[in-house]
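Sequence design from tokenized structure. All designs in this work follow the same two-part layout: the structure record, then the generated sequence. An example of the structure record is given first.
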């Protein structure tokens, strides 16, 4: 088990082809989610499929119709201490 290890890249799939993008190459990252109705889960358990649009530092755009975020968290610091934000609560990240 890796526990609180740091991810170095994100895997984005488009039509079944996986593209791995290193975090330090990303200028902006946008997520969209669509409900999945044929998941096999009971109707009262929401299930979503996440897509991603990535703009790299060199301006190249990578589009994906699926990104598996798993249990990945965005970690940051505030004056009150550490904060962990689950990916399903994030719509966009922009690097200045």
């Amino acid at each position: 088990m890796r526990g609180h290890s740091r991810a170095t890249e994100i895997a984005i799939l488009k039509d079944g082809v996986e593209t791995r993008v290193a975090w330090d190459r990303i200028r902006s990252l946008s997520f969209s989610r669509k409900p999945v109705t044929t998941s096999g889960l009971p109707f009262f358990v929401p299930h979503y499929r996440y897509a991603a649009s990535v703009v790299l530092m060199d301006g190249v755009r990578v589009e994906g119709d699926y990104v598996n975020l798993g249990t990945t968290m965005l970690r940051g610091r505030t004056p009150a201490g550490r904060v962990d934000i689950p990916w399903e609560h994030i719509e966009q990240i922009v690097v200045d």
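The CA atoms of residues 55 and 61 lie 4 Å apart. We note this feature because it recurs in several other targets discussed in the main text.
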